Amino acid sequence: MSYQKHYNNSIENPEAFWGEQANNIKWFKKPTTILSKDENGFDRWFEDGKLNICYLAVDKHVDAGFGEQTAIVYDSPVTQQRINYSYNEVKRQVSRLAGGLRDLGVKKGDTVIIYMPMIPHAAFSMLACARIGAIHSVVFGGFAPHELAIRIDDCKPKVIITATSGMEVDRLIAYKPLVDEAVQKATHKVEKVIVYQRNLGAVNPKTERYVSYKKLVKASEPVDCVEMDSTDPLYILYTSGTTGKPKGILRDTGGYATALKYSMKYIYGVEEGDTFWAASDVGWVVGHSYIVYGPLINRNTTIIFEGKPVKTPDASTFWRIISENNVKVMFTAPTAIRAIKKEDPDGELLKMYDLSCLKYQFLAGERCDAATLHWLEEHLQIPVIDHWWQTESGWPMVSNMMGLEALPVKPGSAAKPVGGYNIQILNNDGKQVGANEEGLVAVKLPLPPGNMLNIWGNTERFIEGYLKRFDGYYFSGDGGYIDEDGYVFITGRVDDVINVAGHRLSTAEMEEIVSSNKSVAECAVFGIEDALKGQVPLALVVLKSGDYVSGFELEYNIVNEVRRVIGPVASLKKVLIVKRLPKTRSGKILRKLLRNMADGVEYTIPSTIDDPEIIEEIIHEFKLFKIGIFEHATEEEKQTLADLRIDSFIKYYKSYQHSVNDPEGYWAQIADTFTWRKKWDKVVEYEWDTPKFEWFKGAKLNITENCLDRHLEKRGDDNAIIWEPNNPDEANRILTYNELHAEVCKFANVLKNNGVVKGDRVCIYMPMVPELAIALLACARIGAIHSVVFAGFSSVALSTRINDAECKMLLTSDGVFRGNKAVDFKSIVDEALETCPTIETSIVLNRVNGKVVMKEGRDIWWHKELEKVNANCPAEIMDAEDMLFILYTSGSTGKPKGMVHTCAGYMVQTAHSFKNVFQYEHGDIYFCTADVGWITGHSYIVYGPLSAGATTLMFEGIPSYPDYSRFWQIVEKYKVNQFYTAPTAIRALAAQGNEMTQRNDLSSIKVLGTVGEPINEEAWH
Question: What angle separates helix 591-599 from helix 614-624, to the nearest 10 degrees?
Answer without folding.
Answer: 40
